[in-house]
Amino acid sequence: MCRRLGATRLIYRARISNYVKAGLVDRALQVFDEMSRSDCRVFSADYNRLIGALVRRTRFDLADRCYRQMALRGFSLTSFTYSRLVSGLCRARNLALVDRLLPDMDKLGCVLDIWASNIYLNLLCDEDRVELALEVLDRMVELGREPDVVTYTILIDGLCKAGRFDAAVEMWHRMIGQGFVPDKIACTALVVGLCVGGKVELAYDLIIGVMKGGRTEFSCLIYNALISGFCKAGKIDKALAIKSFMGRNGCKPDSVTYNILLNYYERDGLRRDIYSYNQFLKGLCKAKQPDRAYRLMVHEMQVKGLCDVVSYNTLMAAFSEDRRTRRAYKLFEEMCGKGIAPDVVTFTILINAFLRDGSSDIAKELLDKMSGMNIFPDRILYTTIIDHFCKSGKVTIAQNIFNDMVEKGIWPDVVSYNAIINGLCKSTRVNEAMHVYEQMQARGCHADEVTYKLIISGLIREKKLSVACKVWDEMMEKGFTLDSSISETLISAIHSVDSAG
């Protein structure tokens, strides 16, 4: 009899499982009810499995019904199932049901896992129930569930949004005291929260140690919050110092950074000198507002006689980057008409733009005009022209220009060498590319990751696999890593040769 009932129970469980997997939750529930009314004994594990399945399907109404039913029959959930149920209910923002479950858990001595605890705390903070969140934290610790960085971050964020800055700072110190290293999200919660509350000096004092430690990667959002806070406090020198630091720390200022500074300058004014105006122009251009920058130059800078070649170069570069090359050329004509002499940077910007747009005839005219003004190309302009001819398949012309650059005493850098190596490799002239590669090393110019990738790819295309492996070894000795796609191609080519042999 017992064996028969055991087999029947297994059949019921299998049917319920199959219906759940097929997404037929209502049908699974019907079979479960049928099993409950049969002679088969239903265990706590059966309720845990079913409720877990209902939570995964976000059927919280049915999960609640099953939960009430199992409680009447004297069964209880495991800590794991409670955690999954609470997590799901929090995502559905059903705090009423969570509040009913927690006392039951306390009676049983069950503790939410850290994942569910954090989700619950986050919802409490979102619902402006920060005081309850703090009580939950204390209760967690009492029951042996230690908070993690995410826990502290949630509470710091919630306390700042509630205007309880002293408590947020206390929570920050508590986290540090526990030996945690704040991550980017924790730092963002503290800095943004304090800066929004007008506590930029406090935010800076708390975060500067982490910032200088270099163990945590900072996002633009953190730097921008500090810059904005110092601008609002009228401390532009500190704001500019943060901007300089973020650049040195590998975080490039974004359009938001520049807009913050621009808004400050427009509100509180600039120092009225040409350097400050040009910095303002650069900010506008980096914020993708070249037309606004041009109006500033015309209506303010030119009127005050504070306009120079840097001003025009800044605008020409912005319009060229925006693919408005003709507009950039009009600025060139305008500056010449006003008696402002162009420099090599001016010509580099325009020649690069016209070559990119396929207008090599205009680029040639500009080179001639440049020569007539006794302005000579520098390494950047030479490299720009070499790269253009290499990409156009005119590698011999590029080589002649390269040699001319060297003869004039302008030593190529790794970017110049990479341009010519790329052209030679793509023209199936890898032996010449190898000669250039050896030449650059002899001249004390060190190859970079791009150089090695170009050379190895060229050698693979021309089936010079042993040489490619040798260059790969050299690359690894220098601490560079080859792209997985190129290394896989090389290994595959070697295997093909071995198989054919």
TrEMBL record:
<dbReference type="Pfam" id="PF13041">
    <property type="entry name" value="PPR_2"/>
</dbReference>
<feature type="repeat" description="PPR">
    <location>
        <begin position="273"/>
        <end position="304"/>
    </location>
</feature>
<feature type="repeat" description="PPR">
    <location>
        <begin position="148"/>
        <end position="182"/>
    </location>
</feature>
<feature type="repeat" description="PPR">
    <location>
        <begin position="413"/>
        <end position="447"/>
    </location>
</feature>
<feature type="repeat" description="PPR">
    <location>
        <begin position="378"/>
        <end position="412"/>
    </location>
</feature>
<feature type="repeat" description="PPR">
    <location>
        <begin position="219"/>
        <end position="253"/>
    </location>
</feature>
<dbReference type="Pfam" id="PF01535">
    <property type="entry name" value="PPR"/>
</dbReference>
<dbReference type="Pfam" id="PF12854">
    <property type="entry name" value="PPR_1"/>
</dbReference>
<keyword id="KW-0677">Repeat</keyword>
<feature type="repeat" description="PPR">
    <location>
        <begin position="308"/>
        <end position="342"/>
    </location>
</feature>
<feature type="repeat" description="PPR">
    <location>
        <begin position="448"/>
        <end position="482"/>
    </location>
</feature>
<feature type="repeat" description="PPR">
    <location>
        <begin position="343"/>
        <end position="377"/>
    </location>
</feature>
<protein>
    <recommendedName>
        <fullName>Pentacotripeptide-repeat region of PRORP domain-containing protein</fullName>
    </recommendedName>
</protein>
<feature type="repeat" description="PPR">
    <location>
        <begin position="78"/>
        <end position="112"/>
    </location>
</feature>
<dbReference type="InterPro" id="IPR002885">
    <property type="entry name" value="PPR_rpt"/>
</dbReference>
<feature type="repeat" description="PPR">
    <location>
        <begin position="8"/>
        <end position="42"/>
    </location>
</feature>
<comment type="similarity">
    <text>Belongs to the PPR family. P subfamily.</text>
</comment>
<dbReference type="InterPro" id="IPR011990">
    <property type="entry name" value="TPR-like_helical_dom_sf"/>
</dbReference>
<feature type="repeat" description="PPR">
    <location>
        <begin position="113"/>
        <end position="147"/>
    </location>
</feature>
